[in-house]
Amino acid sequence: MKKIRFAIAQFNPTVGDFAGNAERILEWVRQAEAQGADLVVFPELAISGYPVWDLANQEDFVAEGLRHLHKIVRATARWRVTVVLGFIDKAKPPSERSRNGQIWISRGKILGRHYKRLLPTYDVFLEDIFFQPGSTCRVIPWNGWRVGPTICEDIWDERYDEKPLKDLRAQRANLIVNISASPFYSGIDAGREALVRGHTKRYRFPMLYVNQVGAQDDLIFDGRSFFADAGGKILFRAPAFQEGLFCYDWNPGGANAAAPALEAPSRRIEEIYQALVLGVRDYCRKNGFDKALIGLSGGIDSALVAAIAADALGPERVLGIAMPGPYSSKGSWEDARDLAERLGLEFHIHPIREAYEALLQIYRSQRVSERKSGTDASEITLAMENLQARLRGLHLMYLSNDERRLLLSTGNKSELAMGYCTLYGDMAGGLSVLGDVLKTDVYRLARYRNGLKEVIPAATLEKPPSAELRPDQRDGDSLPPYEVLDEILRLYIEENQSRGAILRRLGKRRVLPEVVRDTLHKVDHNEYKRRQSAPILRVTQKAWFGRRMPITNRFR
Q1: Which of 463, 479, 495 corresponds to the end of one domain?
Q2: Which of 56, 195, 369, 526 is the most exposed place for a label (fewest CB within 10 A)?
Q3: Which one, of 507, 508, 506, lies nearest residue 495 by Cα?
Q4: Predicted confidence band at 264 (pLDDT cuts at 50, 70, 90)?
């Protein structure tokens, strides 16, 4: 059989930007034609962007997408290359939900359509709420091939009774095209490839897998499209986190070299860093922010966020503000200044001590006038700690509004899990960069970034972590060592393990039962804080949006 040149359109759409998405789709089709491609394939919902949530059933939204789809169909009349696109089609009948579709276009004509059959409603997916499932799979004749069209979840069929690939095999399909918008989490690439290799060997047909790239709100899409032959051998891989049109020539009847093996798991930290940079860049770009703002404490979390923001936006677009309070060490704001100089950020010091003491005096006077007992003037209470954090949040939000800068919050997953954070204080911001990154991985990411160029001061990496809201405060005063805490959190949050199972996994000699019990209680008790967090960039298999726990909950 003749060779096929695939043009794999690893596309980064913006949700709702139909005109912009369609214009870029047509430009990429033109490029695919110029490069002699036989087939150019775009990801799931390429015209509308993904995910669209309730927009899927706004009549005007669907109609606008179809209008631009018809424009693309007409434009292809002048080209030879066949185009495969993801789109949203109208409900049928009208009272039903809309449909998540794949369309095949050639020379201004529609060769066929397919509607996604398997609609996930687990983890970060809620598609069965917004879309009507397709009822059948039909092969599409194309250039002598019997192509089986599928959309993302159609091939992740383990938990479903319906098996779209089995149905396509019964129709003698001999090539599968899967268009996807599969979000990134660490390790997902190996899982995708294992799934596809298993299918291709089981059903004896090759599969082209084309995935979206870029970020949409809290979800990051890593691309990494690939092609596997009928024996399960991966012949081609597109790069991770990179938008582009990638061509691959496949010789169906001859020898085809295998693609290089997947990178070692040791690259996990590198890919998480790349994902976070992409997440910050796209959130700013797609939401109209040219500049970012970060509260620099001199600690490891804000230092890492500053490095990510500088890499995502350019250091000239990032402002760092140190806000020393009554218990801040001189070394902290000096470390913040050192970091800003190394990164090339604009940097200022705005102390909060005067405002803190003035407000504290007002509150104490009010308590006296209301004849309510106050605390000993020498005692530092939780309210006083939170007042410092909220003054910093107030100051940063003023600057964010005044200078139209996106405020990046810097809290990590370990802190969010334990409630070691202040609502409307250090949790303030428009995007949470590290909210899905455990503290031990924060240090790994910082060392990885310093391996490229040393931008995070050694003092920041080496000093014990502290919120500095009272004298000589250390995280270890109220939290287990992060090496222990993070392992408990990973098992409980990401693997959904019970208390007993966690103790068995960790061993009683290593972790006391009361430490596990207290940790799990704090995770559950602080759900109300996480519900009020800024969007959290997802980099693990179980981020907070995908973990739906009740706030009112007495189960222990």
Answers
A1: 479
A2: 369
A3: 506
A4: low
The verdict on residue 45 lying in a domain is yes
- pLDDT exceeds cutoff 90 at 439: yes
Q: Tell me the C-alpha to C-alpha distance, in Å, between residue 71 and each of 15, 105, 153.
A: 18, 12, 28
Q: Both 208 and 340 in a single domain?
A: no
> What is the DSSP code (8-state) at residue 145?
E
Q: Is 47 within a domain?
A: yes
CA distance 89 to 93: 12
CA dist., res. 431 & res. 230, Å (int): 43
- Clarify whether 201 is annotated catalytic: no
* DSSP character at residue 493: I
CA distances from 396 to 331, 352, 399, 409, 472 (A): 21, 11, 5, 10, 25
Of the candidates 137, 152, 284, 421, the residue annotated as catalytic is: 152
Q: Count H helices, E strands: the chain? A: 17, 19
Q: Specify whether 340 is located in the same domain as 385.
A: yes
Pairing of strands 175-180, 145-151: parallel
Catalytic residue among 2, 23, 27, 44: 44
Cβ pair 489, 522 in contact under 8 A: no
Residue 143 DSSP label: T
- Active-site residue, 403 included: no
Closest CA to 202 of 169, 180, 167, 159: 169
DSSP symbol at 98: B
From residue 235, alpha-carbon distances to 147, 204, 256, 259, 261 in Å are 19, 15, 7, 5, 10
CB 432 within 8 A of CB 421: no
* Distance between CA atoms of residues 19 and 109, nearest Å: 21
Would you call 385 a catalytic residue per the annotation?
no
Q: Which of 457, 462, 465, 463 is nearest to 338 (CA)?
A: 457
Size (the chain), residues: 556
**Residue 375 — pLDDT band, cuts 50, 70, 90?**
low
**Rounded mean pLDDT of the chain?**
93
* Alpha carbons 374 and 218: distance in angstroms, whole number: 43
Structural domain harbouring 363: 270-479
